[in-house]
């Protein structure tokens, strides 16, 4: 597309040689094409090629909204020039996650006098800079910022507070106990809070959840419609969110229609939160709900809450039974066509009539799932992971068969044991991998076996008749798929040392392997794929199917596939990667993974790759191969490797990568560190939140948040 000026001007020669002249397209078509080009390239490069493009590149449809959040090549000078050229034309500016830009870059945002929406999450900004900037943005209605240690609300000017008083949407990420700018936002309708406060300082001191002396404790919630809080692990985060909730418990906003709190682990209910929930039950009708499991378990809360046209429910990790789900949420089969997103991750009894005497591994009640599917027929995002959902032998009632009715699904998360054919599981003799203990021994001798390596042979192994194959065939427009073992846990959890042992896979999952992976290749529009703890992967040949057929794949996460003592799918993975031209994010978690020359040579075919994360107990790497890969793949800006190498080797390689490539890649973030080192948590805390949350830490992301929670 980037033609030299003389090529564009000389229409005749271009037309004669190629039969088409780009400049003869209509303005509407050209604007559509230009909409896929980063704004910095449009303004700073493309518009200089010819007069026509100079005019089109400044069209309001292209300058109204400027997205820099994943423009990893943008630097301070480019931002400065961009704001000079089109600052007055920008109404929405997204700089979320631009961690590499110095805080002085924010000063140039003051040129955008007409800004209505501004996202600075993940950017370095001080109280004084924030005050200066907001003082000039009199039309601002939507704001996203971080609140870091040292934030002082008393430094905000009266002009800044006047701007904040008009802000109706606020997203605030807290790294220190504080109200941030919330008390200044007197017109709030949407409040999103992300609590990332650590329990200990870098010096090892315990932190308190008490707010700074002098901070206002009266947030203005009277106009609030959406309240969302997501807590990272830690006691301090729980203490601080209770202070935000205290005002809500005194007076519940009449217009509140979405109330969501995502809290890991145990977050006990208190008298104040109970009063808040009672008030909500009396006074509001909700469209979206998520609560900590302790607030729902054993209570009759759901029976009393009223819903209007709900679009999002999350009962993640709750002990809610299927009977209660149908009776209290779906009202015995009430039409819930409005529901588009449902998260039942870790809700182990949600497909059983009751949970009192039931074991987690017992068969599900297909009638409950059928009621769910019939009532919520417009679901687009469904998460059933982290549970044992075993189907019975009843014909036509398998979980996969029932889910195939949800034709609108865009993202789906399932446990591995839920996709196996019941009949095949009973009749199929144990495979070699079933007989081998799931140990971490380096050498596993199991005799010589021959497995089909030819793709055509693999495809002919009766997989077309499986229920999972049929499910994949019916969900043609699925964009995100997660198949995760019900007992899988990542070796690198948040804020804790690396896990050294993992639980064995579910017995029902033992037959899930290459043929099921091959079935995924039917998803032509697949963009994100996660596979974790599939024990019967023998060669990984199904991955090659996916590489060939799923040409839109952008994110791939593989963890603990096949035998744990050997990476049995390495050859197939390398074949697959040669076809993944659109792949941007790759995460691999596998013991004894060898990141050597052959692997990185195959990975170099992924010309769009931007982020790489490898987590491997006892894993090895070749430094020269890594350096060669970084030199060949110019788009890579994140390289995280947590392996079994020594600290000396890791530090040396990390320093070499930074020295060689940082100048040309301003966003470069490199972390190479021994996985089992005692200082791992200290290293993790310095990783930019964008990378940590999106790729480095393993988690299920389907229906994690309501759709379109923030722009």
From TrEMBL:
<feature type="domain" description="F-box">
    <location>
        <begin position="19"/>
        <end position="66"/>
    </location>
</feature>
<dbReference type="GO" id="GO:0031146">
    <property type="term" value="P:SCF-dependent proteasomal ubiquitin-dependent protein catabolic process"/>
</dbReference>
<dbReference type="GO" id="GO:0019005">
    <property type="term" value="C:SCF ubiquitin ligase complex"/>
</dbReference>
<dbReference type="InterPro" id="IPR045627">
    <property type="entry name" value="FBXL18_LRR"/>
</dbReference>
<protein>
    <submittedName>
        <fullName>FXL18 protein</fullName>
    </submittedName>
</protein>
<dbReference type="InterPro" id="IPR047948">
    <property type="entry name" value="FBXL18_F-box"/>
</dbReference>
<dbReference type="InterPro" id="IPR036047">
    <property type="entry name" value="F-box-like_dom_sf"/>
</dbReference>
<dbReference type="InterPro" id="IPR001810">
    <property type="entry name" value="F-box_dom"/>
</dbReference>
<dbReference type="Pfam" id="PF19729">
    <property type="entry name" value="LRR_FBXL18"/>
</dbReference>
<dbReference type="InterPro" id="IPR032675">
    <property type="entry name" value="LRR_dom_sf"/>
</dbReference>
<dbReference type="Pfam" id="PF12937">
    <property type="entry name" value="F-box-like"/>
</dbReference>
């Amino acid at each position: 597309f980037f033609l030299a000026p003389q090529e564009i001007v000389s229409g005749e020669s271009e037309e004669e040689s190629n039969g088409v002249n780009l400049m003869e397209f209509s303005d509407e078509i050209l604007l559509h094409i230009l909409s896929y080009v980063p704004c910095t390239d449009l303004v700073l490069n493309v518009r200089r090629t010819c007069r026509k493009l100079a005019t089109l590149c400044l069209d309001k449809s292209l300058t109204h909204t400027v997205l820099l959040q994943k423009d990893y090549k943008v630097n301070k000078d480019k931002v400065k020039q961009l704001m000079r050229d089109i600052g007055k034309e920008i109404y929405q500016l997204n700089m979320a996650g631009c961690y590499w830009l110095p805080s002085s870059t924010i000063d140039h945002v003051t040129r955008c006098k007409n800004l209505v929406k501004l996202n600075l999450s993940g950017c370095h900004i001080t109280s004084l800079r924030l005050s200066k900037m907001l003082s000039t943005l009199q039309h601002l209605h939507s704001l996203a910022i971080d609140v870091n240690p040292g934030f002082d609300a008393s430094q905000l000017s009266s002009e800044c507070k006047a701007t904040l008083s008009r802000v109706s949407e606020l997203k605030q990420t807290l790294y220190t106990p504080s109200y941030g700018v919330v008390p200044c936002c007197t017109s709030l309708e949407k409040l999103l809070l992300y609590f990332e406060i650590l329990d200990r300082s870098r010096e090892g001191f315990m932190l308190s959840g008490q707010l700074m002396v002098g901070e206002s404790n009266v947030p203005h919630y009277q106009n609030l419609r959406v309240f969302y809080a997501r807590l990272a692990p830690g006691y301090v985060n729980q203490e601080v969110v209770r202070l935000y909730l205290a005002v809500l418990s005194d007076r519940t906003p009449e217009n509140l229609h979405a109330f969501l709190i995502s809290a890991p682990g145990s977050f006990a209910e208190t008298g104040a939160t109970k009063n808040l929930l009672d008030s909500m039950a009396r006074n509001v009708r909700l469209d979206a709900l998520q609560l900590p499991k302790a607030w729902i378990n054993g209570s009759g809360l759901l029976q009393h809450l009223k819903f209007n046209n709900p679009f999002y429910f999350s009962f993640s990790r709750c002990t809610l039974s299927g009977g209660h789900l149908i009776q209290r949420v779906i009202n015995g089969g009430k039409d819930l066509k409005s529901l588009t997103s449902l998260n039942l991750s870790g809700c182990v009894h949600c497909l059983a009539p009751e949970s009192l005497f039931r074991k987690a591994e017992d068969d599900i009640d297909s009638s409950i799932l059928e009621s769910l599917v019939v009532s919520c027929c417009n679901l687009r995002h469904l998460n059933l992971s982290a549970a044992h959902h075993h189907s019975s032998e009843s014909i036509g009632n398998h979980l996969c068969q029932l889910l195939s009715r949800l034709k609108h699904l865009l993202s789906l998360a399932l446990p591995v044991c839920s996709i196996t054919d019941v009949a095949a599981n009973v009749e199929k003799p144990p495979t070699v991998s079933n007989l081998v203990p799931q140990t971490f021994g380096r050498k596993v001798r199991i005799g010589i076996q021959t497995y089909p390596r030819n793709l055509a042979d693999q495809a002919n192994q009766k997989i077309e008749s499986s229920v999972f194959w049929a499910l994949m065939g019916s969900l043609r427009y699925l964009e995100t798929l997660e198949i995760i073992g019900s007992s899988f846990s990542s070796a690198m959890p948040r804020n804790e040392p690396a896990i050294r042992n993992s639980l064995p896979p579910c017995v029902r999952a033992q037959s899930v392997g290459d043929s099921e992976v091959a079935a995924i290749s039917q998803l032509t529009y697949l963009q994100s794929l996660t596979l974790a703890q599939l024990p019967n992967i023998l060669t990984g040949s199904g991955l090659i199917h996916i590489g060939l057929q799923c040409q839109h794949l952008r994110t791939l996460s593989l963890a603990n596939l096949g035998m744990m003592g050997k990476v049995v799918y390495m050859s197939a993975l390398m074949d697959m990667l040669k076809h993944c031209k659109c792949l941007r994010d790759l995460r691999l978690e596998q013991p004894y993974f060898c990141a050597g020359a052959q692997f990185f040579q195959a990975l170099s075919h992924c010309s769009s790759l931007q982020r790489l994360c490898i987590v491997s107990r006892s894993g090895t790497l070749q430094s020269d191969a890594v350096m060669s890969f970084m030199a060949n793949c110019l788009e890579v800006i994140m390289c995280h490797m947590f392996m079994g190498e020594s600290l000396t080797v890791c530090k040396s390689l990390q320093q070499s990568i930074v020295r060689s490539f940082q100048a040309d890649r301003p966003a470069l973030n490199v972390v190479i560190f021994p996985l089992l080192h005692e200082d791992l948590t200290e290293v993790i805390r310095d990783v930019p939140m964008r990378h940590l949350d999106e790729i480095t830490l393993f988690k299920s992301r389907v229906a994690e948040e309501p759709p379109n929670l923030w722009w």
